[in-house]
Amino acid sequence: AAAEKGGFATFMDKEIHDQPTAVADTLRGRVDENGRLRLDEGLIDEYVLKSIDKIIVVACGTASYAGLVARYAIEHWTRIPVEVDLAHEFRYRDPVVNIKTLVVAISQSGETMDTIMAVRHAQQQGATVIGIVNTQGSTIAREADAVLYTRAGPEIAVASTKAFLAQITASYLLGIFLAELRGNKFPDEIAALLSELDAMPAKIQRVLDTAEPIRVVARSMADEHTVLFLGRHVGFPVALEGALKLKELAYIHAEGFAAGELKHGPIALVEQDKPVFVIVPSPHGPESLHAKVLSNVQEVRARGARTLVIAVEGDEEAARHADEIFYVPDAPVLMTPLLSVIPLQIFAHELASAKGFDVDQPRNLAKSVTVE
Ligand code: G6P
After folding, report:
1. CA dihedral 349, 353, 355, 357 (to 10 degrees)
2. What is residue 259's DSSP assignment?
3. How far is the CA of 172 from the centre of ligand 1 (A)?
4. What is the DSSP letter of 60?
5. I need a labelling partner for 97 at 20 to 30 A (CA). Which of 126, 192, 313, 335 fits?
6. Overall pTM > 0.95
């Protein structure tokens, strides 16, 4: 088993370190000679893809957070409205789905029954389904009209890490592809996006190479009872994922919030010394977003919180408001979740390990939930 873990103490730690490769492999060879995205399986008539007027992402757990990231990117690049549904909520809300709907089912295992049932419901309504799936030949891969495989390799740890980054990466590819196909972007803009994506694996590696400070902080926090996570725009799903990882692995109460919601409720939870992670967006992002999130940091700090801030390298203003600062490389804003989530994965892993828990097999959880 030690060999399978590649020298790491846990599968999860190995898989965290596999992430540069998982993203690079998911990107490799994806663009054909005509500059079009190559789907791995199935074929969707280009006419259908040109005529869709809505995208609905269906997924569960961590995959649903990849879907939330996908929404920001795909909507921005394609101008197609994107919804994200938890797969088990999808059919019960009687969603508006028809032949002009593209449903994107995201699943590591391809066997999550809730997601399979959402796929079937969508197909019954006439929708086209693309699977973003990690497991070759799985049920969702077989039943979807087309598949874009994430090439993360087998994920053994129950808590998803490298599959999550690969899902986000595949979603970007899908968004870029649709933008190209539908003429939303000029060829040079498409090429620029693809080359920015190609630069991400090296940046992910850099986050891993500079992660010691978050490990040290995590080990000192084994006695915490509650940790809050705030993020805005693409930082919001990152906050949700950071909180989920901590719940799953360390059995600590953790909540992720949209930073803009802070004043509408969550700020009531802030008290002296309570740890609050804040994912601060790049100063180069959408206008005034950076300033607004930094003012959230100040608001919680003024109430005694201990602020743990994730910011992009060079953001010295963020450091001034942080009790602890963790830097990640700068990147196009929509792509930053591939970087900013990594310190949170490592935090949950280290804190749970410090508590002596089995991070690869947390209590009560299954890698793949094959019942509804
Ligand atoms: C389970 C796992 C989660 C995973 C979710 C969706 O709940 O414990 O880690 O995110 O299922 O799994 P899928 O295989 O569909 O991505």
Report:
1. 100
2. G
3. 20
4. -
5. 335
6. yes
| Sheet containing 41-42, strands listed edge to edge, beginning at the edge strand earlier in sequence | 41-42, 146-149, 128-133, 101-107, 54-59, 82-86
What are the pLDDT digits (tens) for 176-217? Answer: 999 999 999 888 999 999 999 999 999 999 999 999 999 999
Separation in Å, CA 142 to CA 46, 99, 139, 326 = 20, 20, 5, 41
CB 234 within 8 A of CB 362: no
Of 68, 85, 90, 109, the residue with max ligand 1 atoms within 8 A of its CB, to mutate for a pocket test, comes to: 109
ipTM above threshold 0.90: yes
- Give residue-wise pLDDT tens across range 211-259: 999 999 999 999 999 999 999 999 999 999 999 999 999 999 999 999 9
Rounded CA-CA distance 236/244 in Å is 12
C-alpha of residue 52 to centroid of ligand 1, in Å: 28
Within 101-138, residue ranges assigned H as helices are: 113-124
b or e along 175-200 (b: 16 or more beta carbons within 10 Å of the residue's beta carbon)? bbbbbbebebbeeeebeebbeebeeb
Q: Is 367 a catalytic residue?
A: yes
State the Cα–Cα distance between residues 66 and 71, nearest whole angstrom. Answer: 9
> Average pLDDT of the chain?
95
Of residues 57, 55, 53, the one with CA closest to residue 68: 57
